[in-house]
Amino acid sequence: MEKKNIDWANLGFGYVQTDYRFVSNFKDGAWDDGILTEDANVVINECAGVLQYAQTVFEGMKAYTTQDGRIVTFRPDLNAERMAQSAARLEMPVFPQDKFIEAVIKVVKANEAYVPPYGSGATLYVRPYMFGSNPVIGVKPADEYQFRILTTPVGPYFKGGVKPLTIRVCDFDRAAPNGTGHIKAGLNYAMSLHAIVDAHKQGYDENMYLDAATRTYVEETGGANFLFVTRDGKVVTPKSNSILPSITRRSLIQVAQEYLGLEAEEREIPLEEVKDMAECGLCGTAAVISPVGKIVDHGKEICLPSGMTEMGPITKKLYETLTGIQMGSIKAPEGWVVEVK
Length: 341
Ligand code: PLP
Ligand code: COI
Prior knowledge:
The chain is an alpha+beta fold.
């Protein structure tokens, strides 16, 4: 199979239309079998639930080409499970989890020509999403839904690749204590847009959100969880029920413990403690692990000892081990890597 003529090494994190997408509709209480289509446009009624009341959830995952030329995905069962939790919170029907994995495999296979080659630095980003599709004008859940999966080849989420980021402590809140911060709903991202545009205007790469109730604990950024390394070499990540349970972060904790022999724990992390950390990174499917060099808290600079030129040493080991597992050069724990082809 011939690959598309794409400059893989210079891809950013953007949308490149690929040939096929998966579409399934929910009507009269049941999902249809779904199809692959070449039509990239969605046609829905002007009053569709998603357009009026933002009833939409999504997922983000990647397909990788391994060193020996296979195409694989990483822990798609966890994306299926999280999407089910997201859907339930927004009163949407659950797309069956086995069908979710089947559909991911089908759509990646159909777009094989767009799966970036091993070593190119790019991957195929896979975006499952679901939305209320029938007209709704009173505030209530839709009765009909569409589940789709689009794919797009992507490069690094942050320009500059592994150059450490500068982030700011944000005055806007991302999620309420009993709100929707723990699910992957479009609404969480809509409300982060003003904060990220403002951060960029002020010269920062990202926002560090704090817990909305007390504004004393570290939560996450708009699109990734935090991971810190303490000065005595322990990996710590924020525990909160208003952050997205990142699959990358959960995997990294296990990688730290089982592959690198490090202590790793999920616990509340006061902002006050960040000045004592040795390394900081943002972790997620899109971000992989992007190192943070500086955190600015209202003019007060916290400069991580790992500096502004490269990843900290433990962050780098975590990055190399995780990407090695994802790209097949390091043996994965049972069930983590699912073969597409
Ligand atoms: N936090 C937020 C708000 C995100 O959007 C993402 C991206 O999916 C993550 C964390 C990282 O999650 P994952 O590692 O499952 O991609
Ligand atoms: C992902 O990492 O998959 C996400 O959905 C984050 C988004 C900001 C691109």
